[in-house]
Amino acid sequence: MNNIDFLKVLGLEDLNPGVSTGNDWILTANEIESISPVDGKRIGTVRIASPEDYESVIKTAEEAFPEWRKLPAPKRGDIIRQMADAFRKYKQELGTLISYEMGKSLQEGLGEVQEVIDVCDFASGLSRQIYGLTMHSERPDHRMYEQYHPLGIVGVITAFNFPAAVWAWNTMLALVCGDVAVWKPSHKVLLTAVACQKIAGRVLKENNVPEGVCSLICGANELGETMAKDKRIPLISATGSTAMGRKVAVAVGERLGKTLLELGGNNAIIITENADLTIALHASVFGAIGTAGQRCTTTRRLIIHSSIFEEFKIKLLNAYKQVKIGNPLLEGIHMGPLIDQSAVQHYLNALDDCKEQGAQFTVEGGVLEGTGYESGCYVKPCIVEVKPDFPIVQKETFAPLLYIMEYDTLAEAIGIQNGVSQGLSSGIISLNLRETELFLSSAGSDCGIANVNIGTSGAEIGGAFGGEKDSGGGRESGSDSWKAYMRRQTNTINYGTGLPLAQGIKFDF
């Protein structure tokens, strides 16, 4: 299927409106082009929002909230179930668009659409399981319980690397909880956002859902800043860099709003002397080069026991020789391009920093040139031997740059693992039960995700996704992450004939 075909199937004409209140689209004046990092070609043009468009979307969302929250949760869940079916119908086309617009391999693009489908299914089931708690009161003839209510408007700000999945993680849970959602996607992947909104919008229209329940508003970074400061949006869920998250946290915190932050990662795998090296190799290579190193869960550090360091380094070197880099739409390609020239420059700057700090290159990096690499966004996956205290190791470089280092004791390895400001994902490869249990204990990994005998990448939607420290502290997707999109209320009911007061206080009247 060529580019023109899949764009037409998704309803993406040459010029697309980028502002939608759910079923309706607003024709705006300003435009932004979507350029593919695969070949440097223009895919299409999206119209972006003006301040007036923003006000219109927020006002419409405010008006929709009272109607949407009255709809019973199982009814909301059924609408989301229909969305899952709609995304199943367009999985191939949408996955192809994600791959072409973002640069990840086609299999990863299709896998991302599957995540959208899976979280829709999860939210649909959740619609019958939004529960509270009951507890005994200390007063006679009283009952206490807790229940959850929707917040209102949930602002969803997403990054370029998962242009569909992270929107679904947040929006589907927000919708099933009775909230309404306003989505501001990355300006680098707007056509994917428009396609997702069109697919979801058709389902909303078929079910006569009020305008404003599920909205899209495309624009530059300033639009996200506007959302963060807007008191009408009680919760901002933002995915991106730690620097971006700090700004959002300050802006939302000043108005005492709520944030759900999914920020950067500096993820490590500890490979012990008791590791299955075949598993370790697969976990390390996929974790390091998947999505060209542009996942927040990308493996950026390997902490390898000194007794197997040289052996495993040779295995890595041989594996990297087999990595196929090229057009991600082609079968058999392992790694596509970085998102744009700015990302390439950040990668090159990191390589320069490694050289200045005395790192040794096991696999040299650089920009690929020649036939098939005309966009200038293709780079070589790089392996660098470092010391844990090198300044560059403390930073997250959003590129296929893997740092390897040695350790002698597991306590030392865990200290290295935890010795960065980020705390998203982590892993240990070991067949020794004592080692793995220590890693999972309170004295082990300080990350929000800690894996045994798998890598740092590839989280399932059933578990709560998120990290600690500079990774933001948020939790999205599965488990009880739905609670972030709701407000908790404690209720006390007196079914007796008197009113006992606290601390034995009495009145004579």
Automatic annotation (TrEMBL):
Record text on subunit structure and interactions: Homotetramer.
Originating species: Arcticibacter svalbardensis MN12-7
Domain called Aldehyde dehydrogenase: residue spans: 30-490
Enzyme Commission number(s) of this protein: 1.2.1.3
The UniProt record lists the keyword Cell division: no
Catalytic center residues: 262
Family: Belongs to the aldehyde dehydrogenase family.
Keywords: NAD, Oxidoreductase
EC top class named in words: oxidoreductase
Protein's name according to its UniProt entry: aldehyde dehydrogenase (NAD(+))
Molecular function terms from GO: aldehyde dehydrogenase (NAD+) activity
InterPro entries in UniProt: Ald_DH/histidinol_DH, Ald_DH_C, Ald_DH_CS_GLU, Ald_DH_N, Aldehyde_DH_dom, ALDH7A1-like
PROSITE patterns reported for this sequence: ALDEHYDE_DEHYDR_GLU (PS00687)
